[in-house]
């Protein structure tokens, strides 16, 4: 079935140009990169070339890149790895209320099992963290600040550069989950002032199960996966060579096409945004109007359930999401939408559209055509809407 895929923040299609780079490493170049014979050296060199591509994409040194299985592993390694390495120095971590579960859950784990104290900073109605709040939250026991670059649900882009300066002044390690910004925005570890940065291949047209953690030279961190000495003893296990080759090529393409992708996705997202806001009454825009990922549109259609909108759109071959793929399926509204101050009802009426490089103008035009009548029809059937209890703000 050919549908209209508008869930690119959940995952993206692998760019077909990447396949040809990968196939040899599943086939004749299957050797273990750590072995001593000649063809292994060729595989090892290819892995190092991919590492250079990835390092270049984020302005890092290749030796500061550790390949992982994706964003979740990178976040877990950064947070638990620093916490374990610095446990004698302090037990306080600063993060925000709107992080991905792959940041929140490691924090909860450290609180529950190792006695860590975690500050979850609030955000304003646009989802922005106030750097001053970060400064005020720092104590002498603070060992890590972890704040996402761009939010996956509402697209808000956080003031990472400013927070980076604050972290540096206080000599506290600073990690950012850049899974949503890599490939969409310029991401440079030195400009951002971060010590650790997580990225994930499948969010920028690489395969699922690939990713990396940037670890600034000199940063103290314990590995999560112990075993062999791969990845400079920072992540054991025989390298996922085909995955790494794909990630390297995805990084190269992301760098070459970044501006083009930005312009294309922003054009489509803006068109969709105008179509929704101008043709449908009682809609709230979630996230910051400007400081936002170019591809993300999160809106709340007052008076109806997001889930019923998604089901109806699905029936029409339009695939969007109600927030993060992880929280959908549960009845709890998204923690991100609650943190920006939406009521439970409003949060339940939210839908996230995230466009990608493979979407077309025609697809967006079709969605803009279909949405107003879909929303109107669903509202006619909604008791919430009928009772007239729906309020903006
Ligand atoms: C998708 C996502 C993750 C998890 O990445 P995986 O590679 O799927 O483990 C982490 N953080 C953010 C912001 C994400 O969007």
Brief rundown of the structure:
By secondary structure, the protein is an alpha/beta fold. It has 14 helices and twelve strands.
The low-confidence runs, each spanning 5 or more residues with pLDDT under 50, are 324-328
User: Termini distance?
Assistant: 39 Å
Taking Cα atoms only, what radius of gyration do you get, to the nearest Å?
22 Å
CATH fold field value of the largest domain = Aspartate Aminotransferase, domain 2
Approximately what portion of the residues adopt beta-strand conformation? 5-15%
Number of helices: 14
What percent of the residues sit in helical stretches (DSSP H or I)? Answer: 40-55%
Number of DSSP strands? 12
Ligands and ions found:
pyridoxal-5'-phosphate
CATH superfamily annotation of the largest domain = Type I PLP-dependent aspartate aminotransferase-like (Major domain)
**Major pleated sheet:** 7 strands, mixed
- The name of the CATH architecture of the largest domain is 3-Layer(aba) Sandwich
Question: Can you list the strand order of the major beta sheet?
Answer: 2-8-7-6-5-3-4
Shape: globular
- Number of domains as seen in the coordinates: 2
- Mean pLDDT rating: 95
